Amino acid sequence: MSISLLDGGVSSTTGGTTQTFSEIGKNVTNGIALSDTGEPDYFARAELQCSIRMPSLQSDGEYSKNKRTVKYVKPLTLASGKIVYNTISFIVDFHPESTAAQLADLREKGAQIGIDSEFDEFFANGKISL
Fold this sequence. Notes:
This protein is an alpha+beta fold. The protein is built from two helices and five strands; from the N terminus they run E-E-E-E-E-H-H. It has a domain at 22-96: MS2 Viral Coat Protein.
């Protein structure tokens, strides 16, 4: 068995209800924090943290990579009453000479990995069956 990703594919989600995230003024280094302010329970609000790292000129004359990170944080209240935070991060590292099409392809592959059924067992149990 092998894992298949679509080259040139388009991922999308359907169904569900819209969650709207609004800026909350929380400090995120080189970024912004947004929260699901539609959730009345402050301690149950999901949050998005978006940050960037711009490329910088290195001593060898080359540039470092750009980095874009989006982290989704979902609080979970345990039976004990303690609140823990489950997270998923989407990170894209790319060289500044990458084209828009190359960046779009990276994002598309990341989306497929996140929703592809071939990765369900990996995310649930840490195992990939090949």
